[in-house]
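fyi for ur records
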Amino acid sequence: MSTLETNLIQPATGTTLTVGASGDTITNAAGTTFTVSNGTMSGQMYPAFAAYLTADQTITNATYTKVAMANEYFDTDSAYDASTNYRFTVPTGKAGKYFLYGRLFCDSGTNSEMNSVIMAFKLNGSTYIREQSTNMASNPGRNLGLTLTAIVNLSASDYIELWVNPNDASGNPIVDGATVFGASGAGNEFGGYRIGA
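which gave:
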């Protein structure tokens, strides 16, 4: 392997410079930094996925239950299991830092009250981070929505799942997969994307 040392690389003609060919891997050494001044750097943050509900899911009251997001908006690397485990698994060679988000809309399923909701990301089966809605027991409403976000450092084969634990006065809570916020399933979503190594 030869070494090219120079302070400036410019295209011979035009304004487009191509480095490498299709199928090549371009690697920067550890500790190096790319700086973009007064311009943009385009590209996609893959893997990326987004899943959602279109049907109600009944949840056992005051019990952690995995949310079965069985529909996908997209799944760039076929890394989200939308049929069995409802989890995102980091593909081989795609370890790194991931931005993850979850959004749920919970309903009592009756005309009683939804007091509070806990939502959690589980990493390899263990709670990684969770969020709880304000306890509404003193002034309860029928529905509660909650959003959870996190940046997680993941290794290949790690998996992430979205779980919910509602506290409902009726004891019959559901994750509402019906028309919510103007679009079917739009009140409930689980997704994420890789933001860096």
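The chain has no helices and 14 strands. thats all i got for now
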